[in-house]
Please model this.
Amino acid sequence: MKKIMKENNASAKFSRLLRKSGHKATSSRISVLEMLGRTKRPLSAQDVIDELGKKINQATIYRILKVLKEKGLIRQIDFRHNHAHYEISGSDEHHHLVCVYCGRIEDVHDCGIENTYALVLRHSKHFSDIRQHALEFYGVCKSCNKKTPKTTQ
Model:
């Protein structure tokens, strides 16, 4: 019962967001947003297709992701995997730490990059405003660090 109520609350929330952004709250769009909303990590388009592909065709999923990104409801993230990943946009501004060996992803909160805006703009010759930024960190997780030989660089 609790899970059903939570899903209904998520559906209602995403329906409102879609309508507020000027789009119809279709069941397909809501399903994609719900899936992105309940995961703990950014998902690729293929992850969404694997999960929802029986209910929504592949081309529709790609169109939905494009529209949701354009309207700012989801963020597109580049983890250097030769394909995009997506997560719900929101007030929870964060970045990601990615293991270069196993691909583990960890959210990084409060990295202080916003404090760098003024410095970047002060050194810019042609820009007066920063509207958004992307920052991902790449390293080796503790598990892989134990398994991999150390190299000097």
Observations:
- The chain is about 40% helix and 20% strand.
- The two ends are 55 Å apart (CA to CA).
- The CA atoms of residues 93 and 109 lie 7 Å apart.
- Strands lie at 43-44, 74-78, 84-88, 94-99, 105-109, 136-139.
